[in-house]
């Protein structure tokens, strides 16, 4: 099968590998869509924590189940599914508390082990969620939106609160949309005017601020009677911006770090204590978050597909990836399409066709 491998920072290669087969409890997914995430871009650039090379990237995955292993219902064959890419142990303290998103022994597909930038992938069946209604593009965006859903749920955001989202990339846009579903007042902050315009025009997030052009703290004080934000979410991936985010949080407020960077983040301790600020990290997502995103997508409340601005076929990805990583590329969400059958395992070739 075709496989795109990140050999080292800045270098992707297309190679042919043996197609996988299903073990017990697994299903074989013919990959049809792969969303390019900030994690992939940071890994390509050499800035992603928890990462080793070479690695097959890709964890925003959707496709068709074409074969199943022992102990798996064969009725799943032919159904479209998305992947929950977080493989947890089930035994550690975090897992016992239901916080499988931060499992002590976490293995993320496409980060700690090879991912889905390939024709087919064997996945534990419990990590696959099928859908009869959502198209492939939306299925491939569920994971990205679930990150936002988890961050918002972790913040405890409630109706009428002021939520500030720093960073108008796909994750930030997801956070903003999920915060709006909580009936909070949402303000998006970014230095890129095109992305702010996209939030306003395509996502309906009307309150945006550009720190290059205006005083963000003064603007937030003006709309909050001087109280600043109830909750601030950082999705910038920029250490300097992450440190500045502390200043946007009001007294008794919460600061949720959604971004992960290879850097130290510092704060002024007297300010933290004076405000009795809650500082939270947010990692990955749980099945509850995925289910919430699917429910909202099926109800037409998350215009996630609007974020897809660039597309390419798998074969052309090594050519396009460097350009997509450039700051001036205009990419919001890039999508890799694998609509041709490509290479699949023999067991998939011999599987019955259950499509209607």
From TrEMBL:
Please list which residues make up the signal peptide. Answer: none
Cofactor(s) for this protein?
Zn(2+)
Question: In this protein, which residues make up the domain named Alcohol dehydrogenase-like N-terminal?
Answer: 23-130
- SUPFAM superfamilies listed in its UniProt record: GroES-like, NAD(P)-binding Rossmann-fold domains
The chain positions of domain Alcohol dehydrogenase-like C-terminal read 170-298
Q: Which keywords annotate this record?
A: Metal-binding, Oxidoreductase, Zinc
* Entry's family note: Belongs to the zinc-containing alcohol dehydrogenase family.
Protein's UniProt name: Zinc-binding alcohol dehydrogenase family protein
Q: Which organism is it from?
A: Halomonas flagellata
